[in-house]
Design brief:
single chain; alpha/beta; 7-stranded mixed beta sheet; 13 helices; 16 strands; about 40% helix
Length: about 450
């Protein structure tokens, strides 16, 4: 590394240490990598080390870094009009809404724009409560819906613990997860049937007349790429219809090609009443999220003001990026590419790794969204690290992650799982390269087995 690059790296890291407050972190215990640039499926540091990104940042660079069509669209829009208050009709805002509505399932034809996924969830819950006149919202224990007030209370994983007020009107229940079935199921059919019965019982004993909504991730992202069994989402839709409950699908992480369809709900032909999106809508190039709204809920606010809004709702630059992203995805067949990559490369490749490495308890996923569940004992399925582990207890996963980085692969590790989420545009050679690095790194995980 030359002296100029070293000075640039040191300046970035020094400013970061002094002034940036990082999320989900003890500030003095972290040492963020200083990144100099990125393109396609790679980013690199000031020393010239290139990393194949199997995390898509935080599962949002669906079209990769620096896609030229999206960069050009942002530049052109900035030269013409950078921003305008949300109360005006603007061409790119309208076009972004139209392109999203064309791809959402069913009659989700109205789009309320937010700055990101958590705000989408906040507003979807608000809409459901106002539409029904009810207060409670049901969500699963294994879930993540964001870090704002309602969203973090809806979240089921351990990040909720430090924020849970116990006053948010949230009731948690168990969703399907056959590998660690809370229902002692042995087949997907049993898991689906028992999970739906459990949800129905929860609704009945909480009082259907008090429940505004059930919110689910179509495919559970942060909890471990939890793909629902066939029939589950349709069963939840039926329960919501029976009891007059709003059905919300959180597609923040899995929308826009991540699972090989425009929206993950398309795999099961299910239409919710409200659908939350963000991340992949413009690959995170400019912050954007939103709620796609059904006709019935939109009608609630046809002559009654919706009591919510955001200064940057439908930000012009963000919407220009969304128009360019969705257009590029359609023209370049990126959604179809994601489906092929999962079916022909990632799925088979990860299953081959599982056959060679006893620490891999299960492989699951769709498209360019997969998880390896790592275990200490394949027979008992004891996780490689305990739930919500930190410090020394999390060391085995830390060692595995470091082995990935040493091989030039940037992993996404959560709990005892590796999440495999490269850009939807990743090529076959890079998939093979990433799998080869994982093959070596999993030997480290094998060494930590009981």
């Amino acid at each position: 590394m030359n002296a100029a690059a070293a000075r640039a790296r040191d300046a970035v890291k020094e400013a970061d240490r002094k002034h940036v407050f990082h999320s989900w972190s003890a500030q003095e215990l972290i040492d963020p990598l200083a990144v100099a640039g990125a393109e396609g499926s790679y980013f690199w540091d000031y020393e010239g080390n290139r990393f194949l990104d199997f995390s898509s940042s935080l599962v949002y660079t669906n079209i990769g870094y620096q896609h030229p069509k999206v960069v050009a669209a942002i530049q052109e829009q900035a030269a013409r009009l950078c921003t305008l208050a949300p109360g005006f009709a603007v061409d790119v805002r309208s076009e972004a809404a139209r392109l999203i509505a064309e791809r959402t399932p069913g009659d989700l034809d109205k789009i309320f724009f937010t700055n990101g996924g958590a705000e989408a969830v906040e507003n979807a819950v608000r809409m459901a409560r106002l539409h029904t006149g009810r207060a409670k919202v049901l969500s699963t224990y294994r879930s993540y819906h964001g870090a704002t007030s309602a969203a973090i209370n809806l979240t089921g994983d351990a990040r909720r613990f430090g924020n849970d007020t116990a006053t948010a009107g949230v009731v948690h229940f168990w969703g399907p997860y056959l590998y660690r079935s809370p229902f002692h199921a042995e087949t997907e059919e049993q898991e689906c049937e028992r999970a739906l019965r459990h949800l129905e019982d929860t609704i009945v004993f909480e009082g259907p007349q008090s429940i505004a909504a059930v919110i689910l991730e179509s495919v559970g992202g942060a909890p471990g790429v939890l793909v629902p069994p066939p029939g589950y989402l349709a069963g939840v839709r039926a329960l919501c219809d029976r009891f007059g409950i709003v059905f919300i699908l959180d597609e923040v992480m899995v929308g826009f090609g991540r699972t090989g369809t425009w929206f993950a709900a398309d795999h099961w032909d299910v239409t919710p009443d409200l659908l939350c999106f963000a991340k992949g809508v413009n690959s995170g190039y400019v912050p954007l999220g939103g709620v796609a709204i059904s006709g019935a809920i939109a009608e609630t606010f046809a002559r009654r003001p919706y009591p919510g809004g955001l200064t940057y709702s439908g930000h012009v630059l963000a919407c220009a990026a969304a128009v360019a992203t969705i257009t590029a995805m359609a023209e370049e067949g990126i959604v179809e590419q994601s489906a092929r990559t999962g079916a022909e490369l990632l799925g088979p490749g990860l299953r081959e790794l599982a056959e060679r490495h006893p620490s891999v308890g299960e492989v699951r996923g769709l498209g360019t969204f997969w998880a390896l569940e790592l275990v200490r004992d394949a027979g008992t399925r004891e996780p490689l690290v305990p739930y919500a582990a930190s410090g020394a207890a999390a060391a085995p996963m830390g060692a595995f992650a470091e082995a990935c980085k040493k091989g030039g692969l940037w992993p996404l590790v959560a709990g005892n799982r590796l999440h495999v989420a490269p850009p939807c545009t990743i090529g076959a050679q890079d998939v093979a390269k990433g799998l080869a690095v994982l093959d070596e790194a999993l030997a480290v995980a094998d060494a930590h087995m009981a």
